[in-house]
Amino acid sequence: MVMEGDPSDSILEAHLEDQPGFTSDDKEVMDILNDPDSIKEELVRYGDDDVIGDALKVGGGDLWQYAQKLEADLRQTEAESIEDYVRQSSGVAELRLHIEACDEMLKTFEDVLTTCQSELGGMGNTIMDMKRRANSLEVLANNRKSAEQRLAALIDGIAMPPGLARAIHEGEINDGMIEHLQTLEAKLSFLDPHLNKGRVAVDHVKPLLDRLKSKAVDRLRDHLLRKIRSLDSDHPFLHTFNLSHSQGSSAIKKQHQEGQDKLRKDCAFVKFLLDHHEEVYREVMSKYFETMGGILSAHFRSEFRVRQSSIREVIRADHRLIDISEVKSRFPSRLIPDKLKSFHFRSERGQSDHSTFSLGGRLDHIMQYVECDEEEGVSSPPELVLQAIMQNLVDMVLSEHEFASSLFPRRSKEMYAKLLSQTLEVIKEGVSVMVKSCVDPIAILLMIYCVQVAQSKISEKMNVAEEAGAAEEEDIFQDFFLQFSMLVWPRFKHAVQLQMDSVRSASLHALTSRSSTKDVHVLTLRFAELSSALLDIQTRLNANSVQMAKATNKYMIKELEKVVKEMKNAMGSGLQGNFFAFNQFDHILQAYYEIGLPAQSCLPLRMLLDEQTNVLIPAVLGKRFLELSAEMKRYLQVEEGEGEGGEPSLTKEKAKEILDAFTRGWKEEFVRLKRLLQDNIARVENEFLLAKKAFMHMHLIVTRFLKTVNDMYEVELLPNSTSDIEQNLFQQFEEIFKLEEEDAGI
Asked: Where is the Vps52 C-terminal domain positioned along the sequence (predicted)?
């Protein structure tokens, strides 16, 4: 049993506390073991635990005996531990000495490391200083490199390559010279005061470069002017132009193309002049345009001279709308129906060219650009001659515009005036000679159309080009076309007036002596051909020309109206003159419809035809209908309708009498009307239409008369009289004119 206060317990406790693994929990266990009361409390608390219970049952003895045995074991262990400690105490002392020696060595090593750290810190400062110095040296090296590069560029820029001066002064001006000029231009770029102002080296070399530039400019000027002057002497045979049409046109184009090809290689030389001496550039450009202008004008003057000798007038001075001797000899009686039919109903426009006044294929040749006959000695109409010349002009102008735009990018209106003014003046002179004696209005109008087509082509190409020079060129051509119009329009009106004078001066007796009311007069035939030809061309002209052409056409229609009405009056006061005028106007209008003229162009003739129709309607109805119609109108105009004594002026008996007279003999009257129209109207369609209008005219009068009478008496004069009359009228009209309606396709 362990007694309280036993010193061995204290020694053991102290020994255990010195052990490295002793913890506060171990101390708490030691306190419980040293205090029996505490052990009892613990046993009461944890007695139910299975592990503790099993431990308490070991050996099956008394708990106290177990505790004593445990204490004895502990004391034995303690004694053994003390004995072991005493036995090992000398080794512990020796270990302590070793530990102290180690501490001394570690302290010495720490001192060495501290010294090494101090030395490394000094080396780091040295390294930082070296790094700063290295950065400074790098900046200096970069600055030096940049300075060397810029200085090298300056030296390369101003340094004269070997042989450059000799090449500029003495070298041949060819493709190799372009490379030398480019080198010189690169050197001259360093003379820009904004880039290299104040540099001594540049100021030193500047006089030398200026002298080389002046020498290059002088040599290029002489070279270009010499080549430009040679353009006019390479092909002197073109000035005589004693060639055929095709050879002349080809020679002109070939000469023009060769001139461009000779200068096309010198574009770099011209650009050098433009960049470094604009005055010389303008001198060269002026010389080129002046020389080419002279060449082109000479070409066109020669071409006009040759082509004018081969012009064939279609309508000559002896061709007139009315030629009395021709009328008497060729048309002793009525016109030949077959000839008339071929004009009216030809299947294709242009196939029937039986008259000099018809358009035929002349407009188609212009629109499709049919070249003049190339064989020498073969003549061509004046419009085709002018068409060929204008086509050559268009080709050369457009070619020259494209070439000049590349060779001389900076040009002015004055330069183009030098190039084109002489040529355009030659063309105006040539046209003036062509139209001076021309009496063919179709040819003159086609010539106007040719020029306007050329104007359109040039304007279209000029509008595509987005250069300042394009507008200037177009202004020159606008002036030319305006002057051309002022030149040819008076002649056109004169040619038309000559034809109309022949109509006005003709003898009415000769014109109407053997004329038929149904057949087309020679005047009408030719007038229809001429006026339809002029109107057909007119639809293709520009707005200004259309107005002038309309005025001429209005004048022609007015003169025709006068002559036809005079011819109608010369035939007497009967229906013959009215039928004649109607057929003539209808024939001209059908000619207009045949070629597809717009309604506006046909309107003047349409109005004349309608006017003549209004004259014919009452005339073809006959005397009986006219008298009845006049009597009905007289009653219709009575406002009050009362006579003497307050009685109505139109009695029922009188009204019945008028209606009976009106409805009597309808069939015979329709037969008479049909025969009259068949004998005097040229076209079946017009026979039926005139008859229908006459019928509707009378039907309207009768209807108004019946309505007036019924309103007066407030009852129908005769039961179903209106419907009976209408049914009778329509039935008989349909029966008589049914065949004409079917023939007319109505």
From this structure: 291-589
Distance of alpha carbon 639 from alpha carbon 309, whole angstroms: 78
- Which one-letter amino acid corresponds to residue 483? Q
What is the gyration radius of the CA atoms in the chain, in angstroms?
Answer: 64
DSSP state of 514: T
Nearest-5° Cα angle at 606, 600 to 609: 170
Cα 103 from chain centre: 104
Q: Could you give the CA distance from residue 259 to residue 228 in angstroms, rounded to a whole number?
A: 8
Would you say 743 and 681 are in contact if contact means Cβ atoms under 8 Å apart? Answer: no
pLDDT, residue 242, reads 44
CA–CA distance, 344 with 341 (Å, rounded to integer): 5
Burial track 304-326 (b if 16+ CB lie within 10 A, e otherwise): bebbeebbebbbeeebbbbbeee
Whether residue 538 is predicted with pLDDT greater than 50 in this model: the reply is: yes
**Interatomic CA distance for residues 260 and 282, integer angstroms:** 18
Structure tokens at 87: 């036995």
- Could you give the count of Cα atoms lying within 13 Å of 131 in the half-sphere of its Cβ? 6
- Closest residue by Cα to residue 255 from 241, 267, 269: 241
Are the C-beta atoms of 659 and 665 separated by less than 8 Å?
no
Give the closest residue to 412 by CA, choosing from 304, 302, 567, 278. 278
Q: For residue 272, what pLDDT is reported? A: 87
Both structure tokens of 134: 């290295």
Q: What pLDDT does 335 receive?
A: 36
Check if the beta carbon of residue 431 is closer than 8 Å to that of residue 487. Answer: yes
How many Å apart are CA 305 and CA 299, to the nearest integer? Answer: 10
Q: What is the pLDDT of residue 594?
A: 87
Q: What is the pLDDT of residue 62?
A: 64
Residue 43: which of 59, 32, 28, 27 has the closest Cα?
32
The terminus-to-terminus CA distance of the chain in angstroms comes to 159
Contact yes or no for 614/697 (Cβ under 8 A): no
Q: Give which of 606, 585, 584, 616 is closest to 690, Cα–Cα.
A: 616
In contact, 612 and 578? CB cutoff 8 Å:
yes
The structure's pTM equals 0.65
Measure CA 544 to chain center: 24
Mean pLDDT, the chain, rounded, equals 75
pLDDT at 237: 40
Sign of the Cα torsion 726, 728, 729, 735 reads positive
Q: Which of 219, 233, 211 is nearest to 284 (CA)?
A: 219
Does 669 or 490 have the greater pLDDT score? Answer: 490
